[in-house]
Specification:
The complex is a heterodimer of chains A (297) and B (434). Chain A contains 14 helices and no strands. With 297 residues, chain A is mostly helical. Helices cover 45% and strands 15% of the residues of chain B. Chain B is built from 16 helices and 15 strands. In chain B, the strands form four sheets. In chain B, strands 7, 8, 9, 10, 12 and 14 form a six-stranded mixed sheet that branches. In chain B, helix 9 packs across helix 16 and helix 15 runs antiparallel to helix 16. The longest helix of chain B is centred in the first third of the chain and has 24 residues. Chain B starts with a helix and ends with a helix. The model of chain B has no long low-confidence stretch (mean pLDDT 91). The chains are: A mainly alpha (297), B alpha/beta (434).
């Protein structure tokens, strides 16, 4: 049996055969489309008709495109706000839900997850109505509680539109963040907490000295996921402001879509998408390095 | 040689399959399927109902033709249309906007089948109606409607607040002030879609300068946006309207449906929109009070500073149909197109059902039972001293459309000064010309 296993592992042909289907799928679904994108990005194709090879001109243009950088900045703002605002709250709620126990634990778990199971289309349109300046809930409530001076054109003012959208996206993703942290909290070994209790640690100490350090891998996964989904953001933007007013709330995926399909600059859209992939990959690698290194402390 | 029973059965089955397989395609050969791609998803009301009615009638008269309709709202329609074009799989007959930003790449790319001018000699198309549907003397599509930009208003709100319906630009400003004071949104506007802002700006340029060709001269590079006093005056006028609160709060974020509903629910006194909204007077989704009080007037001309009159109209021929050049049933699709657009079909019914103003002569179809909006619109057209042609954002390349619409939205949101806006217009126009 042992010999057989050895032979099996050593046989390169077998390894190749076992890996081939997965690799072929990866080739077809990921590498080939990216390659095709690079190819088109080197042309002046409008999306219809013929095209010419124009070298790296599209890539140079992307680097000088102020909307590209602005979209990237918007994604960074969203990621930063998600990590510094949404995640601590989600973490806290995950810990609190865990402490609740019994039926209430299930009830709250479900409540927090509701926004995640409603289609983005529905929640986005709901928020557009909440933010509406004429009949929207938000301005009405502000007026009702005597804070009328805080009324805003939530989606119409270029200075605050991004933050209005960030709030929608944080709300939409809150359930996921809670769920992942909750799963992390649930998997922590009971004995450590019992030991801490015996040693006389209070709740705060337990949270900061035990729960958070033990949750490091979960936090890493959740943070990377938040950053990548901030970069990829498209649906909510498309359904609420389409990046407007002007490009104040523009995000990369929506911008490349507008360039490729509205402006008929398909090749340029592809150049943006290539940079988009590079940015996402680099971010993932850097974050992975940063966050896994911390684990050794 | 003796064959077993099983082998005989097998042989018979194979023979039967061959016979049936050979006959079926012959039977089916007479049946033709035409794929029809439309921007009118509501097949039970308005133009969508008329389109479906004509399609059903055609299928009844031609039992061998099966027509499959795929219909989407404007924006999703445009997106799917681009996907179809990119994949070179356009449906047999499809809706097009006869404007350079949309249809030029399709005609240039050879996606639309050439039509025969002679077939339409008796169709009564208005002068210029087919300009946007033809290129280098060849015809590729037919126009459905005449589009005019007008000012719809709610008579009840004007009466109740003692406001005069504006016939001059100064009166419009007075009306805006009065409704703002009364806490009613003066004009409902869909700023999220941008194009309505572009049209309004062009309207103002014409009203300020009195020259409907000025905008196109600027697009052609003969005049500079930033160096012409009329463009600056019109931009300042638009800024003044926004600062006065002429449009509902946060109009920049309002899409088509939101602005239309605001007006239909009598929360806005006026609505700057196209003549394709004639159906407002019959729209059962709105109250009887609204339907009985909705009226229409031309966007007022200027006195004093401006030279443009209310009879200088923003008007063009927008939507229409074309046939795919690669359609396997091209001849049949053209026959269907010709049937739909025959004057006694589209023009007559569209007018008599009070849906739109056709792109063809309709005077022979007047019944005396027209709704108020139709009569008012007809009067506006009859008094017209000039028509603009394709709105400027649609009059150049698709890239210019995106640029000009972004720029004007930035201007309307206060992100650009009038001068900065005009400089950006020059840059965008220059880019489009290259």
């Amino acid at each position: 049996m042992g010999d057989n296993m050895h032979y099996f592992r050593e046989n390169k042909k077998t390894i190749f055969l076992l890996v081939a289907p997965g690799f072929a799928f990866f080739l077809m679904a990921v590498l080939f489309p990216i390659g095709l994108s690079v190819y088109y990005a080197l042309t002046d194709w409008s999306g219809i008709g013929g095209f010419n090879y124009i070298g790296f001109r599209n890539f140079q243009r992307v680097l000088q495109d102020r909307i590209f950088w602005h979209s990237l900045k918007n994604a960074a703002t969203l990621a930063l706000m998600t990590i510094t605002i949404q995640h601590p709250i989600a973490f806290l709620f995950a810990v609190l839900i865990d402490r609740l126990g019994g039926k209430l634990e299930k009830v709250f778990k479900t409540i927090f997850f509701i926004p995640c199971v409603i289609p983005v289309m529905v929640t986005s349109k709901m928020w557009v109505n909440i933010y509406n300046s004429q009949y929207g809930l938000l301005n009405k409530v502000l007026e009702l509680i005597g804070l009328g001076f805080l009324k805003q054109q939530w989606l119409g003012d270029p200075k605050i539109v991004l933050y209005s959208l960030v709030l929608i996206m944080m709300w939409q993703g809150f359930g996921w963040a809670v769920l992942i942290y909750y799963a992390g909290v649930k998997s922590l070994p009971e004995e450590v907490f019992e030991a801490a209790k015996i040693d006389g640690a209070n709740r705060c100490q337990t949270l900061f000295r035990i729960t958070i350090p033990l949750m490091q891998p979960v936090i890493a996964v959740n943070v990377i996921w938040a950053v990548i989904s901030s970069l990829k953001q498209m649906e909510t933007i498309y359904l609420t402001t389409n990046g407007g007013p002007g490009n104040a709330s523009q995000f990369l995926a929506n911008y490349l879509y507008i360039k490729a399909f509205d402006a008929y600059e398909f090749a340029y859209g592809n150049a943006i998408s290539v940079f988009f992939v590079v940015v996402c990959l680099l971010t993932t690698v850097v974050l992975n390095r940063l966050l896994t290194r911390k684990e050794y402390y | 040689m003796r064959l077993s029973r099983r082998a005989v059965c097998l042989l018979l089955a194979v023979a039967l399959l061959l016979v049936v397989g050979g006959i079926l395609p012959v039977i089916g050969a007479n049946k033709i399927t035409i794929k029809f791609f439309s921007n009118l998803p509501d097949r039970t009301a308005g133009q969508g109902r008329l389109e479906q009615l004509l399609i059903d009638n055609y299928m009844k008269a031609n039992p061998h033709v099966q027509i499959e309709v795929e219909a989407l709202q404007d924006e999703p329609y445009k997106q799917k249309f681009r996907v179809y074009t990119a994949g070179n799989q356009l449906p047999d007959i499809f809706m097009v906007w006869g404007q350079p930003a949309f249809f030029d790449p399709i005609m240039k790319g050879g996606y639309a089948a050439e039509l025969n001018w002679d077939d339409y000699k008796d169709y009564g198309f208005f002068d210029g109606a087919l300009d946007g549907f033809s290129m280098n003397g060849k015809l590729y599509g037919l126009a459905r409607n005449t589009d005019l930009m007008v000012l719809y208003y709610n008579e009840r709100l004007f009466k109740e607040h003692g406001v005069k319906v504006p016939t001059t630009y100064d009166e419009l400003i007075e009306a805006i002030r009065a409704f703002r004071k009364a806490g009613i949104a003066p004009i409902a506007h869909n700023g999220r879609d941008c194009w309505a802002l572009n049209i309004l700006y062009q309207d103002l340029v014409t009203k300020v300068s009195g020259d409907p060709t000025l905008m196109y001269q600027a697009l052609a590079g003969k005049v500079k946006f930033a160096e012409n006093k009329h463009f600056l005056a019109a931009a300042e006028e638009l800024k003044k309207l926004i600062d006065l609160g002429a449009f509902q709060d946060s109009f920049i974020a309002a899409d088509y449906g939101a602005a239309r509903n605001l007006f239909g629910q009598e929360l806005a006194a006026m609505y700057y929109m196209g003549s394709w909204e004639t159906g407002l007077a019959n729209d059962e989704n709105f109250s009887a009070s609204f339907r009985n009080n909705v009226s229409v007037t031309a966007f007022p001309g200027m006195t004093g500073t401006g030279k443009g009159k209310s009879t200088d109209l923003m008007g063009w021929f927008g939507g229409g149909y074309a046939v795919s050049a690669k359609s396997p049933v091209k001849a049949e699709a053209i026959k269907l197109l010709n049937y739909i657009m025959a004057p006694e079909n589209w023009a007559k019914n569209a007018w008599q059902l009070g849906l739109v103003i056709p792109g063809q002569r309709y005077d022979q179809f007047l019944t005396g039972k027209e709704n108020r909006l139709q009569l008012q619109l007809s009067e506006i057209i009859n008094k017209a001293t000039s028509f603009s042609g394709t709105p400027w954002n649609d009059a150049a390349t698709p890239g210019f459309k995106v640029d000009s619409e972004t720029i004007i939205q930035e201007f309307a949101a206060g992100m650009r000064s009038p001068q900065d806006f005009l400089r950006a217009c020059d840059q965008a126009a220059q880019k489009a010309r290259q």
